[in-house]
Amino acid sequence: LLPEGREVDLTFQLPEKPNLGAVGEVAWSRAQGPRGAAGLGIRFTRVDDETSRALDAFVRATGKVARLDR
Q1: Strand partners, 11
Q2: CA distance 16 to 35
Q3: Is the dihedral of CA 59, 64, 69, 70 positive or negative?
Q4: CA distance 36 to 54
Q5: Which residues face 41 on adjacent strands?
Q6: Which helix (H) or strand (E) is 30 found in, with range?
Q7: Contact 23, 7 (CB under 8 A)
Q8: Residue 54 contacts by C-beta under 8 Å, 6 or more apart in sequence?
Q9: Helix extents (H) in 1-70
Q10: Distance between alpha carbon 67 and the CA centroid of its chain, in Å?
């Protein structure tokens, strides 16, 4: 798992907008255990307007949002 606070470069491959980039940081992470599968959350720290609009439109159109309890 990546440690909290680690900076990560992100690339999104959306149907209408391939190769959109952003930068984020690991907000939380957990190993696999009794509470479920391993996972992590990313907080966006640098995202341009085009990428922000494209991601927002994708989420609104598809409803594909993953939310896990820490």
Answers
A1: 21
A2: 36
A3: negative
A4: 31
A5: 28
A6: strand 20-30
A7: yes
A8: 12, 14, 16, 17, 20
A9: 49-62
A10: 10
Secondary structure class of 19 (helix, strand, coil): coil
> Given the structure tokens 């640098």, which residue do they identify?
46
Contact (Cβ atoms closer than 8 angstroms) between residue 19 and residue 10: no
Whether the CB-CB separation of 42 and 26 falls below 8 Å is answered with yes
Nearest CA to 10 among 18, 25, 1, 21? 21
pLDDT one digit per residue (tens) for the chain, 70 residues: 889 999 999 999 988 888 999 999 999 988 888 878 888 999 999 999 999 999 888 888 887 665 544 4
Distance CA 70, CA 61 (A): 26
